[in-house]
Amino acid sequence: MSSTLIHSIDWNTSPLLPVIAQDIKSGEVLMLAYMNQEALSLTLQTGLAHYYSRSRQSLWKKGETSGHLQHVKEAYLDCDSDTLLLKIEQEGVACHTGRPSCFFNRIDVEETPKEPAQEIAAYSISDKIYHIIQERKKADPKSSYVASLLQKGDNSILKKVVEEAGEFCFACKDNDNKEIIYEAADLMFHALVALGAKNIHPSLISKELERRFGLSGIEEKNSRNEH
């Protein structure tokens, strides 16, 4: 991509550029993601697709943990210089569900996805649950517990978090390791539902814990007061 075209992008007006990834051989559209200026620069420098995750609020190299890298062969800006098309060679699959393309939910006809999902072991369990929660926002509440909670809203979601926190505390007080683990899993699950309802990716919680790591309790409290 020429420097003239890159400089035609108005990053101040649109700090995130929509990016379409297309298989260079088959022409199949694989996914839609976003790039900030740094992600585009890294993509062009390395030949590997880098994006900006709106949910994680951070830069990420596609396939860095899963191994499903995207090798960029061609890059095009559209006529308004506000959308990017990447023609790529995909290693593995493009979608976090384990399917070749993110576009497998056909809505004009009833259809079962042709490609079965592959298990992607590199994704953490919290990441998998978060994405499932996002998918359940569109599910039938009659057939999905998560969908029913999400439909009922904050009061029902947060009530379950409080209930599970109480049960976890009682299990700890009873010194029952099996129940402690079971109730902790329930508490973490319902906390993930609450985070998913607010579109907060669990990796942001990990980042906050990393920020606090090595700080004393007093230092951490003082850092809050500074904000």
From TrEMBL:
InterPro entries: His_synth_HisIE, HisE, PRA-CH, PRib-ATP_PPHydrolase-like, PRib_AMP_CycHydrolase_dom, PRib_AMP_CycHydrolase_sf. The keyword Aminoacyl-tRNA synthetase does not apply. Pathway: Amino-acid biosynthesis; L-histidine biosynthesis; L-histidine from 5-phospho-alpha-D-ribose 1-diphosphate: step 3/9; Amino-acid biosynthesis; L-histidine biosynthesis; L-histidine from 5-phospho-alpha-D-ribose 1-diphosphate: step 2/9. Gene3D superfamilies: MazG-like (1.10.287.1080), Phosphoribosyl-AMP cyclohydrolase (3.10.20.810). Keywords: Amino-acid biosynthesis, ATP-binding, Cytoplasm, Histidine biosynthesis, Hydrolase, Multifunctional enzyme, Nucleotide-binding. Residues 31-104 form the Phosphoribosyl-AMP cyclohydrolase domain. Its EC number is 3.5.4.19, 3.6.1.31. Pfam families: PRA-CH (PF01502), PRA-PH (PF01503). It comes from the Bacteria. HAMAP family: HisE, HisI, HisIE. NCBIfam families: histidine_hisI, PRK00051.1, PRK00400.1-3, PRK02759.1. In the N-terminal section; belongs to the PRA-CH family. In the C-terminal section; belongs to the PRA-PH family. This is Histidine biosynthesis bifunctional protein HisIE.
